[in-house]
Amino acid sequence: MRIVFLGSGDIGVPSLQAIADCKDHQLVRIFTQPARKAGRKQKLAPTPAAVWAAENNVDCTETENINSPETLKEIADCNAELMVVIAFGQFISQEAINIQPHRAINAHASIIPNYRGAGPVNWAVLNGDKKTGISIITVENKMDTGDVLDIAEIPIKPYDDAESVHYKLAMLAPHVLMIAIDNIAEGTAVYIKQDDSKATEAPKLKKTDGYIDFAQPAQEINNKIRGLWSWPGAQADFVSAKTQKCVRVTFAQAQVVSSGKNDTRHGRLDDDLNIICGKGTLKILKIKPAGSGLMDFKAFANGRALAPGDMFLTIEKN
Q1: What's the DSSP call for residue 35?
Q2: How far apart (Å, rounded) are the C-alpha atoms in residues 101 and 79?
Q3: Does 318 fall in a domain?
Q4: Mean pLDDT of all residues belonging to the chain
Q5: Domain that residue 27 falls in
Q6: Each residue of 127-181: pLDDT tens digit?
């Protein structure tokens, strides 16, 4: 089959490669988001899909609106039989979907109907789930509500964060996607409706979602650290009891070291330099101070002469 690919994020790149490598199908064009400013210097950065297209000499269109008349004509001119969508980042109209005889399918990073929305990987880790997966579904007008063609699952390990789970799912997606594409081409695909009554949402994350409340149990805070790495990051303000100097920090890795109830001030460092939480204490392993790189917590503690009684404070929302 002739295939057009709509995608922007790096999770779709291994699947792009799999489609391109398959002798039974042809990748005719990629549609992706325009380059955006990124980094401290705010330089224009193309999407990972656009970078892959340039490196592999595949036609690529960067578009602000996949549903504009000009872009719809370009899609139609591809004479594709199927549209594949992975982390594209725009609403796709029914008109765009219907151009292809086999319409459009999406590789979504959750076990559907769980976590419909923009942040499925983050929310699965945030909520302490033990597994997640890739679901191949049809693209419909309402986000992530399409019929299911196939699902593949992986475990979420205690040491996993959103970044590592994202990578694992990117590696898993090509296998389950190519099976679905082959089944569609052969006319053997089975489409199963979702049970909407079991659906959960995965809304897009905001920076303030990362602000830590140390009155919460240590396990919940650790899930937040794992689920929000590397963006937006689980953040707090560190204040030295001796100097009163304050620095904003992002926690990258931590470990729950006790689960008993605490009666002392939440956010304070105990005698072992662990953070006292609403229930239990949290040992910080890796941390990123504002304006600095990622470092071991020991280096942070030594550089600032941390001592029991120093505080990590919840950031106030403006």
Answers
A1: P
A2: 10
A3: no
A4: 96
A5: 2-198
A6: 999 999 999 999 999 999 999 999 999 999 999 999 999 999 999 999 999 999 9
Q: Token pair for residue 116?
A: 């419909």
In the chain the beta strands, taken as DSSP E runs, fall at 2-7, 26-32, 36-38, 43-45, 60-62, 82-86, 104-108, 131-138, 148-155, 234-239, 246-261, 275-276, 279-289, 295-296, 311-313
Specify the 3-state DSSP secondary structure of 150. strand
Phi, psi for 19 (deg, rounded to 5): -65, -45
Question: Which residue do the tokens 């990748």 mark?
Answer: 27
| Domains held by the chain: number | 2
Model confidence at 260, in pLDDT bands (50, 70, 90)?
Answer: confident
Shared domain for 107 and 178, answered yes or no, is yes
Does 118 lie in the same domain as 220? no
Same domain, 33 and 107: yes
* Angle between helix 48-56 and helix 13-21 axes, rounded to 10 deg: 30
Tokens of 252: 């990258």
Q: Which residues contact 97 (CB under 8 A, 6 or more apart)?
A: 83, 103, 104, 139
Cα distance between residue 235 and residue 78, in whole Å = 46
The tokens describing 154, both together, are 């992986």
* Position 92, amino acid: I
Q: How does 113-124 read in b/e, with b if 16+ C-beta sit within 10 Å?
A: bbbbbbbbbbbb
Q: Which of 86, 30, 101, 89 lies closest to 64 in space, CA to CA?
A: 89
Q: What is the pLDDT of residues 31-73, one digit of tens each?
A: 999 999 777 777 889 999 999 999 999 999 999 999 999 999 9
Asked whether residue 39 falls in the same domain as residue 14, the answer is yes
Is beta strand 246-261 parallel, antiparallel or unpaired with respect to 2-7? Answer: unpaired
Cα distance between residue 4 and residue 73, in whole Å: 13
